[in-house]
Amino acid sequence: MQGSGVLSKRRRRNKIICACILLSLVAVLLFVFSASSSPGTPSPRVSSEPRPDRPPFKYNVKAPPSRIPTTPSSPEDVVSPDERPKLDSPKQNTEEIPKENPKESPKESPKESPKESPKEIPKEGPKESPKKNPKGSEDLYSVKIPNVVVQTPKGEDPELTKRREAVKAAFVHAYGGYEKACMGKGEVRPVSGGCNNWLVENMGLTIIDSLDTMLIMGLEEQYKRGRDYLEKHVDWDQEINVSVFETNIRCLGGLLSAYWLTRDPLMLQRATELADRLLPAFNSKTGYPYTWIQLKSGSKTMSGWTGGSAILSELGSMQMENVFLSQVTGDNRYKDASMKVYKKLHENQPHDKLYPVLIDINNGHYTSEIVTIGSLADSFYEYMLKVWILTGDEYEWLENWYYETADAVLSVLGVWVDGGKSLLFGERKYDRLQNKMDHLTCFMGGTFVLGATLTKDENIQKNHMKAGAGLGNFCRNMYTVNPTKLPADVIQYNTFDDSFSAVDTEYKMRPEAVETWFYLWRATGDPKYREWGWEFFQAIENYTKLELGYTGVRDVTVLPKNIRLTDNQESFFLAETLKYLYLLFSPDEYVDLKEFVFNTEAHPFPVPAMQKKYPIN
To answer: Model confidence over 220-255: pLDDT tens digits?
Structure first.
C-alpha cells in the first residue's frame, strides 16, 4: 500500500508538469502569431533604413575600429594563385590564420551574417561623406593641404590610372591583412598569421608608419580606424626598450607628417609625448644620443654588437623630426638637442670628408675603419641635404657641408661600370675599396638628383644629376639580373666581366631603388623610370603576395617556382615602397617636391615656404 501511494503521487506530479509545459507552448504560439500579424520595425542590425528615433549614422571618432575588406590587386599580367611560390615554412600554422569576414573584427566582435553590419559601425542610415561630421565637431581626419590627396585628372592615360589604382589596392590588401591579424601590434607575419612586436610593443607601429600613405591615397576609412586606435590605446608610458633611431624616423616622423596634413591635435599630442620620452637619449658626454631607451624610466643603453659605439646613420638621422617638432610647437629643446649632434659631427669631419660608420659617444672618436653610404651610414648623408631644405636659411652651413661631402662620396666611393652607363658605390675598409654594395645605397641616387635641382652651380647640377641617373641604372640591374626581378640585399660586383654575385640573397621589401626612380621621373620626365617601377610592382605581386599581405623572399636568385618566403611585412613597405610607387604613377603636382621634403621613412614635411603659406593656428 505504501508503494502504491508513492506511485500515485508521482503520477499526479507528472500530470502537473505536463500541463505546465502545454500551457507554456500555447503561450509561445500565441506570442509568435501576434508578432507576425502586427506591423513592426525591422531590427536595425540588418536594416539599411534609418531608425525614426535616431539621426542617420555619422562618424564618431570614439567608435571602435572595424576591419576593412581586403581588396585584391590583380593586374592582368600577375600569375595565378596556383603558380604562387611555395612558402618557406615547414611548420606553417595556416589553421591559425583568421578566416572571419574581413569586415569584422576577429577579436572585438562576434561573427555575424554577411548581410549584417559589423557592430562597430551600425548601419542606421545612408552613408554620408566622411567630411560631414556632426554639427560642432572637428574634422579630424581629412587633409587640409591642397595637392596631397591624389586625384585623377581629366584626360589621364587610362594605363597610368590603372597602375596607380593597382598600387593603391596593394596597400589596401597589405594594411587589411595587418588590421585583420595584428591590429595595434607591430607588424603582421603573413605566412604564419602571427605578429611582430620588435620595435614599440602594441603601440601600432604599422598604423603610425602608414598614416600619411593613407591620407595621400584618400583612404579615409582606414585612417579613421587607425586614428581611433591611437586615441584609445597608445600610451608611451611603458616599460619597453626601443631603438631611438627607428622610433624617431618611423613613429615620430609618421605622427608629425599626419599632424601637419590634417591639423589633428591628437597627432601632435602623441608626437610630443613620444619625443619627450626620447629626448633623454641625448644626455651623453658628447650630446650624441644613446641607441636604446626605456620609455618609462628613461634608462639608456648602447648596442653590444658595436662594442658600445654609436652608428653614424642613427646619430645623423634624428634631426628632421626634432627640428620640425620645434617648428610646429615653438619648443626649441628638440631642435637644439638634435642639431648639437650635427654641429659636433661637422666640427669633427675627417680630412677626406668621409665618415666612418661607428663613433664613441663618450669622446666623439671614430671606432671603425669602414666608410660606406650603405648600411650603418646611409641616411646620415641624406639628412645633410634634407635638413637644409627643411630649415632654409637658419643653418646656412648645411648647404656647403652637404655638397662638399657628396662630392667626396662621388670621387672616392663611386665606380662607373657597364661602359660608363651605371654607377655603383663601394665600401672602403682600411683604405681599400671593395665593389660591395647594399640595396640601401640606392637611396643616394634620389639624394643626388634632389640636390642637383637646388644648386645654382652648373658643374654640381651636371655631375650630381649624372650620378643619380647612373646609380638608378645600376640599381635597376640589381633587379633584372635575377629570375624573380627582385633585388638581392647585398651584392658584389666584378668589374672584369660586369657580373653580379649576391652576398645576401634576400629581398627585404626595401624602397630605395624606386625612391631614386621617383626622383629621376620628377626631374627628367623620362618614362622608363615609370616602366621600371611597374616591373618591380609586378614582381611584388607575383612572388610576395599572400592572404594576409606581402612578405620578403629568402633567395631571389633561384627560379620563381623554387622561391621560399620570409615571414614579415615590414612597416616601411607601406610607408615607403608603396608610397613611392603610388606617387611615381601620379601627376607631379601631388606632394610636389618644391613644397615637401621626405624624411628617410618617406614621411613628407613641408618646406619653409609651405609652412608660411599654411601656418599652424
So the answer is: 999 999 999 999 999 999 999 999 999 999 999 999
Query: Is residue 421 predicted with pLDDT exceeding 50?
Result: yes
DSSP strand E in 173-237: where?
Answer: 187-188, 195-196
Q: What is the pTM of this model?
A: 0.80
Backbone angles phi, psi at 113, to 5 degrees: -60, 145
The closest alpha carbon to 341, from 413, 279, 251, 297, belongs to 279
Provide the 3-class DSSP secondary structure of residue 199: coil
CB 377, CB 398: distance < 8 Å = no
Distance, in Å, from the CA atom of 609 to the CA atom of 617, rounded to the nearest integer, reads 16
Q: 7 pLDDT exceeds 90?
A: no
Rg for the chain, CA atoms, rounded = 29
Report yes or no: 193 and 567 within 8 Å, Cβ to Cβ. Answer: no
- CA nearest 98: which of 230, 226, 188? 188
| Maximum C-alpha span of the chain | 124
Q: What is the pLDDT of residues 468-513, one digit of tens each?
A: 999 999 999 999 999 999 999 999 999 888 899 999 999 999 999 9
Q: What string of H, E and C letters represents the secondary structure of 555-615? A: CCCCCHHHCCECCCCCHHHHHHHHHHHHHHCCCCCCCCCCCEEECCCCCEEECHHHHHHCC
Measured CA to CA, the distance from residue 31 to residue 23 in angstroms comes to: 12
Task: Dihedral sign for Cα 252, 253, 259, 262, please.
Answer: negative
Backbone angles phi, psi at 175, to 5 degrees: -70, -35
